[in-house]
Amino acid sequence: MRKILLAALGFMALPGLAWAEKGSGTDRDRVSRDVEAMQRDGRWEKAIAEGRANERAFDALRQAAPPTATGAIGARARR
Questions:
Q1: Three-state SS across 39-63?
Q2: What is the DSSP letter of 26?
Q3: 78 DSSP assignment
Q4: Rounded distance, CA 65 to CA 59, Å?
Q5: What is the distance, to the nearest Å, from the Cα of residue 46 to the centroid of all Cα atoms in its chain?
Q6: The whole model's pTM is what?
Q7: What angle do CA 35, 37, 40 make, to 5 degrees?
Q8: Which residues have C-beta within 8 Å of that of residue 43, sequence separation ≥ 6?
Q9: Which of 11, 42, 43, 52 could bridge across to 38 with cysteines, CB 3.0–4.6 Å?
Q10: How far apart are alpha carbons 3 and 29 in whole angstroms?
Q11: Greatest Cα pair distance in the chain
């Protein structure tokens, strides 16, 4: 009985999917236009350069101080 009920509810959801608006899940066209505009006015290269600089800084920090366990505070004196 549960299987039939679940199947029926699943089929009831299908018409709702069919009525979904175009682009409601993704904004691919808008993103493509934004990327093209960024490439035309030079913001794209600036964003890429900033990302690479952030990556280098993160790598330098990671190499300088190895990670410690979460909550590690060193040895405690016993009472």
A1: HHHCHHHHHHHHHHHHHHHHHHHHH
A2: -
A3: P
A4: 10
A5: 21
A6: 0.44
A7: 110
A8: 37
A9: 43
A10: 40
A11: 69
Domain boundaries in the chain?
A: 31-63
Helix ranges (H only) for 1-42 are: 2-18, 28-41
The residue type of 40 is R
Q: Are 44 and 32 in contact (CB under 8 A)?
A: no
Pull the structure tokens for residue 79: 């009472």
CA distance 52 to 44: 12
Instruction: For Cα atoms 42, 45, 51, give the angle at the middle one, nearest 5 degrees.
Output: 140
Q: Name every residue whose Cβ is closer than 8 Å to that of residue 47 and which is 6 or more positions away in sequence.
A: 38
With a cut of 50, list the residues of the chain below it in pLDDT.
none
Give the amino acid at 17.
L
